[in-house]
Design goal:
Layout (H helix, E strand, L loop, with lengths): L6 E3 H26 L4 H4 L8 E4 H39 L3 H4 L5 H16 L3 E4 L5 E5 L16 H15 L4 E7 L8 E7 L1
Antiparallel strand pairs: 1-2, 3-4, 4-6, 5-6
Helix pairs in contact: 1-3, 3-6, 5-6
Protein name: 4-vinyl reductase 4VR domain-containing protein
Organism: Candidatus Zymogenus saltonus
Pfam family, one: V4R
Length: about 200
Amino acid sequence: MSDQEKMATNMSIRAIIESLNDILGGNGARVILKKAGVDHLFNAPPNNDWEPCITVKDQARMFTEVTNVLGLTGALGIWRRIGYLGFKNTVEIARVLDPISNNGLSPDMKFIKGMEIYREGTGKGGPAMDENGRPAFDVPECVICEGYRLDRPICSSYEGVIQYLANWAYGENVYNVREKRCKAMGHDSCFFVLEKK
């Protein structure tokens, strides 16, 4: 299957739509979706399930349109919030982390298992280890930075998702998430690490 044929799940697209609506309001969300060519999803959002929704290429256009409307600097904060709120809403509505919440796993294993669940739902990224042996997250198939060539990392949506998972697994105010490598900077993947606060 080519990259253009890969599908984003209903759950991941619904999370983006709900987050855009929460952050930008209904009119702002509608503008982004219309410019991305998926405005039909505003009035008929997808179900909260793992079924295919739209192509990954269409999903990438949604992120691109946030940048086109708000500029890159404005988009970075929105993308991070989309990641955090989107995954938070998915956890609260679909209860995707319930099976591993109270089963005696160490915080590191909870974090790793949470990342595996995220990968299962989105088809993107997966657990890795940083150079210090700490859990990290690697996204070789990132669509957020597609087409960018910059001197800084920009995939803040994943930072938001991973920050939610870190807060859930380790507790709030323990770790900050930082993107250490980014495809926009010429790396092979986008790589995220946990740093002590």
